[in-house]
Amino acid sequence: MSKQYGSYFTFGDIVSNEYGVWISGEGTFDAPERDIEYVEIPGKSRALILDNNRFRNIDITYPAYMSGDFDSRFDVFKAAMLSYAGQYMILSDTYHPNEFRYATFTGGIDPETGPYNRSGRFDITFNCGPQRFLTSGLSTTTFAEAGTIANPTAYTATPNIRVYGYGTVGVGSNTITITIHPYPYIDIDCEAMDAKYQANNCNGYVQVSGDVFPTLPPGNTGITISGSVSKIELQPRWWTV
Fold first, then answer.
1. No. of helices (H) and no. of strands (E), the chain
2. Would you tell me how many other CB atoms lie within 10 Å of the CB of residue 48?
C-alpha cells in the first residue's frame, strides 16, 4: 500500500489509496436540492409551491492527488473507475466514516500533471443519490413480540424486513400479511416494494395494507407480530442529507 498522505474514498471494491490516489473532502458536505416546482398564477404575486416530496441527485466532487509513477498508475486507476461507469455503487470516504452514498461515475478525469509526469491533480465527480445513509441503519433489530423502534433522524426510512413464518406484521399504521409459503423466511424491501426469498419472487405471498409499504418516520414506530410469525429482523436503513 502507498505511504499514508491523507484521506481516501471507497467506490465499489476500489479503495483509492491502494492506487496512490488521495483526496480532499471539501466537496462532500454539500446538501441536495429539494425537488420543488414554482408555478406562476396570474393575479397572484407569489408563485404556487409544488413539493414533489423528494430530493434530487447531487454531484459530489473530490479534489484528488496522485504522487509517484503517475504516468503508469493513473491509467490503471482510470480503467478501474471506468469499469463501473453508469452503475450505482456504494461510495464512502474517510471524512464520513459512519455514512455512505449510492453513487455513479460517468467518467471524465482531466489531470494536471507535475514535472516529468511524476504526480498529478484531478477532480473525481460522482452523481449520487441524495441520501447519506448511516452505517448504523444497516444493523438489524429482532422482534419476537411487540415492541418499538426509534428513528433518530429527521427523515422517513424505508426498511428491509425479514419475516420468519406467516401471519401479520404491523409497522406503525401499516400491516403486512403473509400467506402460507414454502420458504424459511421472506425478505421485504420497502423501498423497492418487492418481496423475495433469495432469488425467488415472493410477491404473491405478501399483501400490504392500502398497497402502501411500511416506512419508519422520525420518532418511535410500534411493531407487532401475530399469527404464525415467529420473529422478524428489521434493518431500518436510516439516512440523512
1. 1, 21
2. 10
Q: Which three cell numbers stand for residue 79?
A: 480503467
Please, which pLDDT band fits residue 5 given cuts at 50, 70 and 90?
A: low
H or E element that contains 21:
strand 21-23
The torsion angle over the Cα atoms of residues 207, 220, 236 and 10, rounded to 10 degrees, is 150
Least confident of 13-17, 49-53, 121-125, 163-167: 49-53
CA angle (114 as vertex; 112, 118 as ends), nearest 5:
115
User: Residue 93: which of 17, 18, 25, 9 has the closest Cα?
Assistant: 9
Question: How many residues are there in the chain?
Answer: 241
Question: 117 in helix, strand or coil?
Answer: helix
Handedness of CA 40, 46, 52, 57 (dihedral sign): positive
The cell numbers describing 126, all together, are: 460522482
Cα–Cα distance measured from residue 131 to residue 133, given in angstroms and rounded to the nearest whole number: 6
**DSSP secondary structure code for residue 144 in this structure:** S
Cell numbers found for residue 74: 493513473
Instruction: Report the greatest alpha carbon distance in the chain.
Output: 72
Coil vs helix vs strand at 209: helix
Distances (CA, A) of 6 to 22, 25, 52: 6, 10, 40
Q: pLDDT of 189-211, one tens digit each?
A: 999 999 999 999 999 999 999 99
